[in-house]
Amino acid sequence: MTPTSVALNLPDWIKNEIDFERSCTSDEERVALAIALARGNVEHRGGGPFGAAIFSESGRLVAVGVNRVVPQNCSVAHAEMMAFMLAQQHLQRHRLNDDGGRYTLATSAQPCCQCYGASIWAGIDELLIGARAQDVMELSQFDEGPLPADWIGELEKRGITVRRDILREQAREVFKLYAQQGGAAY
């Protein structure tokens, strides 16, 4: 029989290691959490080396995500997508900022073409990035896909502020760790 529903889950280690009551007020704290999620995912072999976190305007953590593509057999289970879906469920709206608040997506690495597109529609107001796409492709075998030449400008036209290279070297270290472990598809 053809499935009629989809269930995606974050790995159990997240419940034990992430403080969901925390607030992160600086860009560096927010990206550091995304990097910690990516590192944890590699160390626990929960999926690929990517992490993401969504914060409210006050810095309250709304949702987190890690890459779950291979373990969940789902090509859309990227860290950003998992964070978007969990935040949307938590807030009970498909556009996070429909309540007039401002929401920030912090990522361990620049969003791929899929997550870039989702960022436009998910209702975020700010995107904070650790590693660049070229770092990801240099240090791993991931193909980040095509983006518009002026992808930052396209986001900014839609009211999404972009800041990148936040803790970039720390973010790159996660990809090095992933490669040291064989870059396994887990």
Describe the protein's architecture and organization.
It is built from 8 helices and 5 strands. β1 and β2 form a beta hairpin. A 5-stranded mixed sheet has the order 2-1-3-4-5. The protein is of the alpha/beta class. 41% of the residues lie in helices and 15% in strands. α2 packs parallel to α8 and α4 packs parallel to α5.
Task: Summarize the topology.
Elements: H1 13-17, H2 27-43, E1 51-56, E2 61-66, H3 69-72, H4 79-91, E3 103-109, H5 113-122, E4 126-131, H6 133-139, H7 151-157, E5 161-163, H8 168-180
Parallel strand pairs: 3-4, 4-5
Antiparallel strand pairs: 1-2, 1-3
Strand content: 15-25%
Overall body shape = globular
* Rg, nearest Å: 15 Å
Largest sheet: 5 strands, mixed
Index terms:
five-stranded mixed β-sheet, 8 helices, alpha/beta, single chain, 15% strand, 41% helix, 186 residues
Compact overview of the structure:
With 186 residues, the protein is of the alpha/beta class. It is built from eight helices and five strands. The protein has helices at 13-17, 27-43, 69-72, 79-91, 113-122, 133-139, 151-157, 168-180; strands at residues 51-56, 61-66, 103-109, 126-131, 161-163.
